[in-house]
């Protein structure tokens, strides 16, 4: 029953919010890129301190 409810909700959300979904995906990609850059900076700084 829970899976069916989730499926119904997902289909309704997909029908109502398509543009917002695309915007959320874009924001998610940007956030991931920022996190990767920050992680790299931290790693570089740690390596610099070790050397």
Q: Secondary-structure map with pairings?
A:
Layout: H1 2-16, H2 19-50
- Outline type: elongated
What average pLDDT do the residues reach?
85
Strand content: under 5%
Tally of DSSP β-strands: 0
pLDDT below 50 for ≥5 consecutive residues: which ranges?
none
Reported for the largest beta sheet, the result is:
none
The SSE order reads: HH
Radius of gyration, taken over Cα atoms and rounded to an integer in Å: 19 Å
Could you characterize the architecture of this molecule?
92% of the residues lie in helices and 0% in strands. It has 51 residues and is an all-alpha fold.
How would you sum up this structure in a few lines?
The protein is an all-alpha fold and 51 residues long. It has helices at residues 2-16, 19-50. The protein is 92% helix and 0% strand.
Keywords:
single chain; mainly alpha; 51 residues; 2 helices
């Amino acid at each position: 029953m829970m899976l069916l409810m989730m499926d119904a909700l997902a289909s309704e959300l997909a029908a109502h919010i398509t543009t917002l979904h695309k915007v959320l995906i874009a924001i998610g990609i940007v956030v991931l890129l920022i996190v990767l850059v920050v992680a790299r900076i931290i790693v570089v700084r740690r390596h610099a301190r070790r050397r």
